[in-house]
Design goal:
Helix content is 50%, strand content 10%. The chain has 25 helices and 15 strands. The strands form 4 sheets. A 5-stranded parallel beta sheet has the order 2-4-6-1-7, with helices on both faces. The protein has a 5-stranded mixed beta sheet with strand order 11-12-13-14-15, with helices on both faces. Strands 8-10-9 form a 3-stranded antiparallel beta sheet. The structure holds adenosine-5'-diphosphate and magnesium ion (MG).
């Protein structure tokens, strides 16, 4: 179960706040209002500022899910900057694994925490840019973010113009940050005279220089760092590539007061660049696929948000097939497949086929766009053949010799090595255990997109095979699902915590009598009601308090009971008295922090309760159930 603080940025929406306030006034709860004043002013502050905070590309902040370990790791890393203990780090993962989502969230948390580290986030775009324009954009983005942080005015994160030095100097003065004017003038002068080397030196060093002079700490997050040497041009006509800009970070990246967190989607390429140009300056950290529980949570979160229903079983299949890739999850839920139905096996299967094989499928589109950029240098029949062969046998590695022999390639070992290196560099295949071993990338969906496009061309392959493979994989997953249910003596509900959340959100009121009849120790005047929101706290570690609850259903009206609950799933053990006591402590803390008056604790434990736990719950008035009808 994930743990979380009860108040996170994600949990508070303007609508929610308005409803909360309206409900309080409706009920004439002046006292409650006074008690809640602190909480409300905190909410208000979040909302007023949230509107203008760095807009996350993920869309609604609510959608951000999981990445608990990574958030905890990097928030600690950011915190450690104050002790000058954090070394510059490269966050590596193939595209669409959630690097930008993670960095933007780190930016926003660090911004709101306002705890001695100033966040700077810059994405290097995959567009050609003249170096002077790039430097201006980089520098002014930094200066505006810095001013936004110091003035606590998030409006500056989205300035009208990012090319007007005079304007930003004026704003700096107005906000009492006159010490910025000198460096702004220097950068403006270098830009106006197109003194490229000086300009890059000034802007690259700006975060570190300002941190040093002001005795501050800055975290510099640069997204898609590999494009620094591939997209910036020395001339306005964009003919001469400035391919040594990244090298400038040789000393900058050693800074302990303004260390870098860079990311890269072109993993092979970035790793090579870092090791050749910036040796030992960066620690590599790979962003792995989400673990199963987070992937399931993401799936249910998207399902609820976009109102695309899934069942427990189809959720299991989709979680298995998307292999912890948040983009694949979002693409399937949001798919434009006509007549999409993710509640049946057939529907899921068709949607996935559409997404991977159809020219309008967003997964296919996204990979084709990438391949068209990454592949041209190596886009010949042999290269495709090699990729197809390796992806077909993804479970093992191949030596160069094996590849030459099996595919009967007419080229020297040296030529083959060059080709394979290029493919590794763009992450279309992976390096094996040593320099002469290679393997396909571990991504079933990518493999199918690739084969769907190229295999026909190579060996007259019939694409409908891929659909068959999906179905075969579904059958396997389905068996696994039923085996797991059997193992835990379940008849339904592998992801039962989500079934219960959905139940509360969508159907608790109409099922009031039934649910009451299968739940013990509810207060006499209890009724299931309308809830403003029903959610699992998505813990944002290091932000707010860190306790966890699986269910928090906030009643729309203060005269009704809210519910704070725990779900014990995938476990046939009985719920123990110690666990019940631990739950009670969490319950008290949430109740206090959320200023809840009418609230009931609820434990759903599939394996039932020990006698001691049962007695404890009865005594404390904690509602209990193990009844499957909760999952219907
Ligand atoms: N933690 C997350 N929670 C929910 N959705 C996510 C998360 N991370 C990524 N996504 C989804 O995956 C997509 C790709 O993520 P992104 O951060 O752009 O990947 P990258 O930067 O690695 O290419 C996002 O647009 C979003 O839909
Ligand atoms: Mg990105």
């Amino acid at each position: 179960m994930t743990g979380v603080s009860p108040i996170t940025l994600d949990d508070v929406t303007p609508v929610f706040l308005m409803r909360l306030v309206a409900a309080m006034f409706r009920a004439g709860k002046v006292i409650a209002f006074n008690q809640s004043r602190f909480a409300i002013s905190r909410y208000l502050w979040y909302i007023l500022t949230m509107e203008y905070a760095l807009k996350e590309r993920i869309g609604k902040p609510d959608l951000f899910t999981g990445r608990k370990d990574e958030l905890a790791y990097f928030l600690k890393w950011i915190d450690n900057i104050k002790e000058e203990k954090s070394q510059s780090t490269a966050l590596l993962a193939r595209r669409k694994m959630g690097k930008t989502a993670l960095m933007e969230r780190l930016f926003n948390i660090t911004f709101y925490k306002n705890d001695g580290v100033i966040p700077f986030f810059y994405e290097i775009k995959e567009n050609k840019m003249w170096v002077v324009d790039f430097c201006k954009d980089f520098f002014l983005t930094f200066i505006y973010q810095y001013i936004a942080f110091k003035s606590r005015e998030p409006g500056y994160l989205q300035p009208e113009s990012r090319s007007d030095f005079e304007e930003v100097a004026k704003i700096a003065k107005k906000e009492g940050l006159g010490y910025l004017v000198g460096i702004i003038k220097d950068a403006a002068h270098a830009a106006a005279h197109e003194e490229i080397d000086i300009l890059w030196e000034i802007v690259r060093q700006a975060p570190q220089s300002i941190a040093f002079r002001q005795k501050e700490f800055i975290v510099q997050m640069i997204d898609e760092f590999q494009f620094l040497n591939a997209m910036i041009y020395l001339d306005k006509e964009k003919k001469n590539l400035a391919d040594t800009l990244a090298g400038g970070y040789l000393s900058t990246a050693e800074s302990k007061i303004a260390p870098l967190l860079v990311s890269g989607s072109w993993v092979g390429w970035l790793m090579k660049e870092l090791s050749s140009m910036l040796p030992a300056r960066f620690r590599n950290k790979f962003l792995k696929p989400m673990p199963e529980n987070e992937a399931a949570e993401t799936l249910y979160n998207y399902s609820r948000f976009f109102q695309v229903p899934v069942t427990d079983e189809t959720a299991f299949l989709l979680t298995g097939l998307t292999e912890g890739n948040p983009f694949y999850i979002s693409a399937v839920i949001r798919s434009h497949y006509p007549g999409k139905d993710l509640t049946t096996l057939e529907g899921v299967s068709r949607t996935l086929e559409f997404e991977t094989l159809d020219n309008e499928g967003s997964i296919k589109l996204s990979w084709m766009e990438y391949i068209s950029k990454a592949f041209p240098q190596i886009n010949d029949r042999n290269a495709k053949n090699i990729v197809l062969h390796l992806t077909k046998h993804r479970d093992r590695e191949f030596t160069r010799k094996e590849i030459l022999d099996t595919l009967k390639l007419e080229m020297s070992d040296g030529q083959l090595e060059k080709k394979l290196k290029a493919l590794v560099m763009v992450d279309i295949i992976s390096q094996g255990r040593n320099d002469f071993r290679y393997r396909g990338v571990n991504d079933t969906i990518f493999d199918k997109v690739f084969r769907g496009v190229y295999q026909e061309e190579i060996d007259g392959f019939d694409v409908s095979i891929i659909a068959k493979e999906y179905r075969a994989r579904f059958e396997e997953l389905k068996k696994q699902y039923h085996r797991l249910l059997g193992e835990f003596n379940y008849r339904k509900g592998y992801f039962e915590e989500y079934l219960i959340l959905d139940r509360l959100l969508f159907r608790a009121r109409e099922d009031n009598e039934l649910l009451k009849s299968v739940t013990r120790y509810l207060p006499g005047d209890f009724n299931f009601c309308e809830y403003t929101r029903v959610w699992r706290y998505n813990s944002t570690p290091g932000y707010g308090r860190g306790f966890s609850v699986d269910i928090y259903a906030r009643a729309a009206s203060p005269v009704d009971y809210s519910i704070i609950g725990e779900v014990k799933s995938r476990d046939s053990r009985k719920f123990s008295r110690e666990e019940a006591e631990a739950f009670e402590r969490k319950f008290d803390e949430v109740k206090r922090c959320e200023h809840l008056e009418k609230v009931v604790g609820f434990i759903f434990s599939r394996g039932g309760f020990t006698l001691e736990a049962e007695n404890y719950c009865r005594e404390k008035g904690i509602a209990c159930s193990e009844d499957e009808r909760w999952l219907a």
